Amino acid sequence: MENLSVNFGGTKWSDLRRLLLCFKLMLIWILLSLPCIFAHCQGVENLSVAVYPMGNLKVHYGDSFELFCVAEKFTSADIEFTMGGKTIPSEVVNSTTIRLYMEKPEKQVNTFYCRNKKTNKICTSRVVVDSTPMAVTDFSCKSKNLEILNCTWIAPGPLSTTQNYITFLIDGNAVEPSTPIRADQTRYWNSWNTYSIPRYRQMENKYYFYLSSCSPFGCNNQSFTVDHFSIVKPDAPSNLKVIRNYTNGVYLQWNIPNNMVDLLPCGVDHRIEYQIDKIDNKSYFRSVDASSLPPKNRTYKFLLTDLPYAHMKYEIRIYIKSKAAVKEEFWSDFTYTMVYTLSERPRRPPDTAVGAFDQSLYQTNRMIYIYWKQLEEYEEAGTNFTYKVVVHHKSNYETLTADNNKSLSFVVLEKAPFDAMDVYIWSRNDNGSSINSSHLYIPPKEDTEALKVSSFTKLAYENGAYKLSWVGIEHIDNYTLFWCQHNSTKICAGRMNFIVLSANKTMQVIELPRENRYQFAISANNGTKTSGMVWAICDISKDAIPMYGFPVKMDHGIPGKTFVKIKWAMTCTLQEGIITGYLIAYCPALDTTNVCATKNKTNLYISNPKQMEINITNLEPYTTYIFTLALNTTYGFKTVENAFTSMTTTEDTPTSPVNINITDVLSDSLTISWDPPIHKNGVIGKYVINNYGQEVYVEKVSDKDEDSKRRHIRLTGLQGFTNYSLSVQACSTAISSCSVLNPHDALFVRTRIGPPSKMRAPTVKNNPDFIKWVPPIIPGGTIDLYQIKRIKDESEAEIINTTNLSFSLIHCEGGVAGQTYQVRAVNFDEDPYHGALTDNKDVYLHNANYKGILEYPGEWSEPSFVNCTSKEHVTLTLILMGIFMIIGIMYGFIKCYKKYRKMEDIKPVLPSGLGVPEKDISKYAIGGWNPTNKDEKPSSDEMLLLPNSRTTVSSELKQKENNNSASSDHTDSTALSDTSHGPVERQISSSDDGSNSSLHLEVEPTRTADSNIDGESCNSETETSQIPSPFFNDNTFKKNPCGYVQQSVVSPNTGYVQSVQAGVTNPPQPSSLSASSSYVMAALSPPIFTTRVAQPCVTSSQSAGGYVHPEGAQTISAMNFPKLGQTTNKLFGPESLPTMQTLPPAKHTADSSYIQLQSLDSLPRHKHPARSTVPLKTPASTGYVRQGDAVINKHLNNMLSGVHCGEESAILDPAMSPDAYCRFSWSTDPANDNIHSLLADSPRLNSSKNGVNH
Predict the structure, then answer these.
(1) pTM above 0.90?
(2) Cα–Cα distance measured from residue 801 to residue 783, given in angstroms and rounded to the nearest whole number
(3) Is 345 helix (H, G, I), strand (E, B) or coil?
(4) What are the start and end residues of every segment in region (Disordered) (predicted)?
(5) Which stretch of DSSP H or E encloses residue 133?
(6) What is the pLDDT of residues 997-1015, one digit of tens each?
(7) Which of 412, 413, 458, 684 has the fewest Cβ atoms surrounding its Cβ within 10 A?
(8) pLDDT tens across 1023-1076, in order?
(9) Nearest by Cα to 87 from 75, 74, 98
(10) What is the rounded CA–CA span in Å between residue 597 and residue 1049?
């Protein structure tokens, strides 16, 4: 652009405008130069100050200015100039005026104040210091597709108001001026288009612009020339599309804007660019030579060739610009399209190297990973790209395909032989395989093992550099170094790379991208022999890069409470000096994780690289610790990611609970709370609350989670107004240990005043009359009062108050029959804390809001009774009771004496068959006693064996025998009541317990229907026993003076002795006796005594069923007792009793002395009534002696007759009364024959006359 001088003198409009501008400037100068002729400030009167010149003052930049401040009715000392609150120095002109003078001030706009310091009134003047508007800069224009013309420029911001105008010339004439738009503080712009006024002229080659800027200080006029077609920016091409695709090119078509074809005479240039997807950087595009394209075509076609890759995605962009434009900013925006080139088969196979296989050896085969370097993605050239691998072994071929879901870097031979193999690898897609293939030779197993590389170590650095070292192997050709992205399985799942190194190398430094971690392998090669890939297991990384897979193993020994031994071992052999030490770091673990609970770790450094263990102490009990290992190498500390171990120390005694508080103190309870110990040192199983060191409460901890919470325990059952010293212990149940109990940590507290405990009944005293009592056991307070409650007969209670422990009063006043006394203690509470007391700030006592006195009475004691009946009545009552007692004692003595005399003259008579033969009288020790009168009437005892007899027994004898029966541990003796006519009631015998009886029998009450039968008259008894029996008749018994004896009956069918006559139609009812025990009620004859001569014992034959053979039955029913000579009593014991090992067969005696006694239940008048009992074994319906009865038959025979075998002795007491009835119990089990135990417990028989032992 050029500045131009334009002559406006030939136009009327220009002259008029210049005249108006001059007039305005003249007017402004006149106003500024007029003197101040007013006595007030800007038209406001009575301000007492004024500024001259008045109003706004405009000063040209570079000139000086002055201001005058005039005071009215004040002096110059009372006025001053200020600006922005600060006083400006000024000079005094006269007594009422001061002057402010500024020489060549900077451009500014400020307000100056003339202030009266006494009245504080002000007058202002605004001063503007500025210059003529400055020239604009950066004037430029741009035409957008020849549709809009925009011009912009920068004008320095003036301090005064500025007016701007812009216009351009057409054919030498200026178009109507336009007012520019202010974009910001300094930038302005103006725009014209095809429909604006003035209109945009699209065909003009050059534009001439005129710009005018005017202010009160003057005007600035500038002119600019613009080359129109060089500032045109076209719109982007349109309708870009691909007409045809090729493997290495595309055929394109597009259009350019119409204005560029129709209005731009110079035409356009093209720019064509493309970018290869996934290869080129996103900001990088490759350029194509498009200079052959014509400048003015509406539609363009172009064949883009030399695209490098088939089946590849490309982005193509096209730009245009005016050929006259020279700046890059006038290129149009681009239009673009995405295209794919056509696919083809891969152009080459993958690269591979010697030793590019990894093998794992087994017993009969090996598994081999075959690796190669993958083609780049842009080289795949088609869809479904993969690799085809053919393995040639001898004459066998095996084809494998790389699995795209796993990796395209390898294939696996699962069961490869140990022999050599040739491997061929092709690249392949849907269009086919590559023309050539890569070859890999896998040597036999022996050749691979001979070249193994040892101590392959990797050192990684933060900048992505890796230092690799290994132990060299002699006589090889070279090494192949492989690497790929790190993988914990040591398999190159990603792209594998390799380089070949010379044979003399033992170290290699390689730099790789820092973004990834890499793993390395190496193979040693010698001709066709190769070791295959050997991975670097000694992987040492730079600081801040954890080492994965480094062969270090950490372990620990058995931990203690505060110590543990840490061990570590390395299987990697490093070069001497690489490792200089070890750093052990440990910290408590967070719960059950492998994360430290704290940020700070404890470090222990071991400077000896050969030391492989350390004992760590000062640990916390029952705490899990994590231990890690770092290697100190020549390259710095290296953290080993997999080298760590954790363990838990054993439990120890916990510390004491903390923050113990006592709240809510009452008279009988309080709340104690605490937090768990800071150092639990294990699992807290319980908490123990102690009072003065004694355990009072145990709080069990149910689970571990609850042990972390604060506990609140309400202690109840306390005593009021009592001192307590409470402490809490934490206990570990696993080691049975509790925290130390420190008396100084106990919390002292006294409970509140409460009611006293219940007192004992008061003691009533006479002559003088008073009552006394003892204080309550638990006072509950200070015992301020005792209350006495007296109740006379049924009258209301009288309450008497006292503070003493006794009280005098008169009993039985007012003629009452009786009165009671009760006492209780009473506590009064007027303490602000209700009597509670403490000396510890952790015990919270609540101050009472109640101002009065609280009363706490205790319970009333048990009453004490006072009988107010006259003493004369009591004396008479005692005398009468004494007389009746003496009469009763005398009557009883006389009755017993008569009974004794009557019993002394009674001689026992046994039924026939139970007597001793006359020839055996010599064995009895008592002489002069001869029971030869066989015709005497049977006694009442013998009548028990008869079917229809009534038995009477005196009450005295019953009582006597009951007393005697109570003294035996083996048998129970029961006397028949004189009021009883029924069968004798069975009492439970202690011998039943020893006879293995499992039945429990009911005891039937004695019937009292028939009573008052005189037991002293035998005749009366027999006369009343006339009820006919269905089992016996008169011929069955031999009559004696006092009764009948049942005769033995031999069954004509069986030949055995039976208990009743044959042919009985109704069998006897089941007895209520135990199936395992039998009882015999026998009337005893006069005393039987033992003799010095023992009868021979002959074993009688017995049937297997327990029946007695006729030849075995003695005619003992008619036995006679001979005269017995007196002799000494023979002692006997268990050793003298007969022993029966088994039944059957039964033991036989010499005289076949087995008898049969009829059971009382078989007699009609002695049957038990029907009752609900335990079912018993039904007796034999034939009445024969059962197997178990054989035992008692033998023993009864020995007892009654004195016959015994060997050392066996009769056990019947010679002094037994004839009125006594003996009940014998025996076990039907021969092994449990309780006769032995009976005799074993009897030291000797009492031979006194009236003594009865049974």
Answers:
(1) no
(2) 12
(3) coil
(4) 952-1032
(5) none
(6) 333 333 343 333 333 333 3
(7) 412
(8) 333 434 444 344 443 444 444 444 444 444 444 444 444 343 444 444 443 333
(9) 98
(10) 106
